[in-house]
Amino acid sequence: SKVQPKIRTKYVDDVLGNYGYFDADAGYELLPRRNPKKAKISYSVKIPQAWTYGSISYPKPTDGITQLIDSTKAQSLLRVGSQYNADSLSAERTRIATLARNNGYYYFRPEYIEYLADTTQEHLKVNLRMIIKKGIPTMALKAYTVGKIDISLQNSTGKGIWDTIYYKDMKMAYQKPLRVKQSIMPSNITLRPGQVYSVTEQDQSQTNLSRLGMFRYINL
C-alpha cells in the first residue's frame, strides 16, 4: 500500500503523454513470495511510436500583440515534424510572453496563450493551433512606454533631511548626506522616459545597481 503501484503507473503514462507517446500503457503485476508478508512488483511499459506536429498555426495578425507574435514565427521553438513535447509548448508560451514584455506589453503573461490540438485528422499527427485566451485583461493587450523615473535614496538610519537632484531623464530624492557620486544612479539605470517599456531593461537596471554593492535593498 505504501508503494502505490497504481499511482506510479499513472505517473508513467502521464509523463510519456507529455512527450507525445499518447498510447503508452504502463502496468504492473504483484509477484508473491514464499513469505506471505513479502512480494515483488514487476512493472511493464509499452511505448508506441511518438506523435509529431502535422501543422502549427498562429493567431492571425489583427492587432499589436498578434502582429508581434507573427513577426517572430521564425524564432518559434515549435517545428512541423518535431515530436510533440509539453515542455516545448510551455517554453514557447514563455518566449512569446517575454517578447511581449520587452515590447511594451507589461501585463502580458504566458498563461494568456492557449493551444488547441487536433489529433483526429491523421494518425500520429497533431495539428496545433495557438490562440490568445479570451477574457484576458484589456491592459494586457496594451503596449506601454516608460513615463517618469523617480529615485528615492534613503540612508541606512532612515533619518536625515531630504533633498532633490534633477537629472536630464530622472529625478532623485535623497536623504543627506549623499554618500554616492551623483552620476551613479543615471549611469546605471538603463530605462529612459519615452522609450518602449522592456522587462529586460528593467532587469538590467536592477542588476547594475545590485552589482555596486552599496545598497541594502533595491526595489524597482
Account of the protein in words:
By secondary structure, this protein is an alpha/beta fold. The chain contains 5 helices and 8 strands, in the order αβββααβββββαα. The strands form 3 sheets. A 3-stranded mixed sheet has the order 3-5-4, with no helix packed on it. Strand 1 and strand 2 form a beta hairpin. The longest helix has 16 residues. The relative contact order is 0.10.
Outline the low-pLDDT stretches.
Answer: none
Across the major sheet, the strand order is 3-5-4
The percent range for strand residues is 15-25%
Distance between the termini: 51 Å
Average residue pLDDT: 94
Total beta-strand segments: 8
Q: Can you count the helices?
A: 5
Structural class: alpha/beta
Radius of gyration: 27 Å
Q: Tell me the major beta sheet.
A: 3 strands, mixed
Helix-strand string: HEEEHHEEEEEHH
- Using the alpha-carbon principal axes, give the shape: elongated
- The level of helicity is 25-40%
